[in-house]
Amino acid sequence: MANDKVVILDSNNFEQEVMNADIPVLVDFWAAWCGPCKMIAPIIDQLADEFDGKVKVAKVNVDDNRDLASQFRVMSIPTLILFKDGEIVDQIMGARPKAELEKFIQKAL
Fold this sequence. Notes:
The chain is an alpha/beta fold. The protein contains four helices and five strands; from the N terminus they run βαβαβαββα. Helices cover 34% and strands 27% of the residues.
């Protein structure tokens, strides 16, 4: 079940939703065939609920948006990139526990 708080990104809306956002943005680069991506998907949805209004949570399907994956040098998935004021604050790769992702997000708050 998709969380309506999670923004689905592509090259048409990335600039507006991420680079011009007025709050920090957590972007999950993922693919449908990726096991670890499926493992963290429910956590991503929970984070979107928890940080609603403080952090925007978004997803980029790397198979459908190879240009964005290439632009941000996403070499393995899942890759989570944290943006603030149009700049990359930090990024991590691989499935991580929820507590670690919460600490990761705090870096931009």
